[in-house]
């Protein structure tokens, strides 16, 4: 694969791969291919910029030869990548976080506080999140000064009723 050396220190090499776009699976293939090369300590692949940082202990020429011989088709045929990697999950989390922050900034900038509050209430009503608030209480059946001491436990925070959920104790 054709690549450009962006930065070179003894034991560290940063390269840019001259390919169009790099998918998440291609980034995983490159990472595990380079980790399989003798003398490579660690590899970090940046799929958005098509860059790779290689920390190595072998000769620089061996690493450059491995990069020159690399192709995605051959490396995928070697089956070095495990079935599940964390790259796709991390990307999904980053995207959700970015969208949430952008939505929050835009709503705070352009919407007045009462409308923003109403939107948050509608969102929580339509898509409720599981919030567990454990409340520590004493067991009511035992006296305050029993021989075994005070008994502690977790009491339910909400109880079902005919007209919906009502808070018992706690927050």
Task: Give the SSE map.
Layout lengths: L2 E7 L2 E6 L6 H12 L4 E7 L4 E6 L3 H10 L2 H6 L9 H24 L2 H14 L8 E4 L13 E4 L2 E4 L2 E4 L4
Antiparallel strand pairs: 1-2, 2-4, 3-4, 5-6, 7-8
Largest sheet: 4 strands, antiparallel
What is the typical, i.e. mean, pLDDT?
77
The best one-word shape is elongated
* Residues in helices, as a percent range: 25-40%
The span between the termini is 60 Å
Count of strand segments: 8
- Structural class estimated from helices and strands: alpha+beta
| Order of neighbouring strands in the sheet with most strands | 1-2-4-3
Radius of gyration from CA coordinates:
28 Å
- Which blocks of ≥5 consecutive residues have pLDDT under 50? 153-159
Q: Helix count, per DSSP?
A: 5
Order of helices and strands: EEHEEHHHHEEEE
Oligomeric form: single chain
Strand content is: 15-25%
Describe the model.
The chain has 171 residues and is of the alpha+beta class. It contains 5 helices and 8 strands. It is elongated, with a radius of gyration of 28 Å. The model is unreliable at 153-159 (pLDDT under 50).
Summarize this entry quickly.
The chain has about 170 residues and is an alpha+beta fold. It is built from five helices and eight strands.
Q: Any descriptors?
A:
alpha+beta; 39% helix; 8 strands; elongated; 171 residues; single chain; 5 helices; two-stranded antiparallel sheet; 4-stranded antiparallel β-sheet
């Amino acid at each position: 694969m054709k690549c450009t050396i962006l930065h070179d220190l003894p034991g560290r090499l940063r390269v840019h791969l001259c390919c169009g776009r790099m998918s998440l699976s291609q980034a995983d293939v490159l990472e595990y291919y380079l980790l399989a090369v003798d003398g490579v300590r660690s590899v970090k692949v940046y799929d958005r910029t098509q860059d790779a940082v290689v920390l190595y202990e072998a000769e620089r020429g061996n690493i450059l030869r491995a990069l020159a011989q690399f192709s995605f088709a051959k490396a995928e045929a070697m089956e070095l990548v495990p079935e599940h990697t964390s790259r796709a999950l991390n990307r999904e989390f980053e995207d959700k976080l970015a969208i949430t922050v952008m939505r929050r900034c835009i709503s705070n900038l352009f919407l007045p506080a009462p409308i923003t509050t109403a939107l948050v209430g509608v969102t929580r009503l339509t898509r409720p999140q599981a919030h567990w608030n454990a409340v520590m209480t004493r067991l009511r059946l035992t006296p305050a000064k029993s021989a075994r001491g005070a008994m502690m436990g977790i009491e339910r925070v909400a109880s079902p009723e005919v007209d919906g959920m009502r808070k018992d104790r706690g927050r």
